[in-house]
Amino acid sequence: MIVLLNKAIEFSNENITKFQFSTRNKYQSYSVGIYCSILELSQSLSTLIENKNYTGSLSIYRTFLENYVDLKNLKNAPQYTDQLDHDNLSNLKKELASAKSGNPFLKSIAKYADTKIPELTTDIKALKSSMLVKPLRIQGKFESANMQDEYFGLYPKLCSDAHCSVSAILDRHFSLDIEKDTVEVIVNSKDSRDDFDYYLCNMAHQLMDAGALLCDILEDSRVNIYLSERDLIQKNVVEKHT
User: Residue 242: is its pLDDT beyond 50?
Assistant: First the structure.
């Protein structure tokens, strides 16, 4: 299934330079930027899987999926840019507050805290008062994108892997031989991981769909080309598993 993803990446790279948009248009700029991240993250996953470096690959897919959710929400509602701005301002405020409290990793920005924190507080308050909906947490973002099933069915596995849960650690590094009653410790396993086919197929499909979403946002006439490629991927997956 890595072949499907690589074909989707190749198609996307060939077409990405043809998009036309205004850098002064926040809605268009955010959408293009997120799409570029989606494409680069798919390339990162492909590189890891081709080299059979599986640890960390699902963390990449988690970030990919979060970006895909944002792009879907932008397509559904241009005012979703307010959500992205709120997230950004809130994170900046948290960093400055931590810097002010003496965090050694943020020492370089501590001198800006007293001036910037009140400004950010005012900006966040003004933004929240103008937003049509309350700021969303990650579950709300998935629900807004009509991806509840992905949130409850796929996202927890990706988070578990990203956070190095016990199940992720056992799956990566211990191999049980029931007949011999032995456990082998594994580092950098190079065994084929067929279970990754599921993620590769999903990513290839979502990468093509992301291109179609961006076409809709930018009113690009190539939307049907992306949708055709997406449907072709789906057909290939069905044929392989039937």
Answer: no
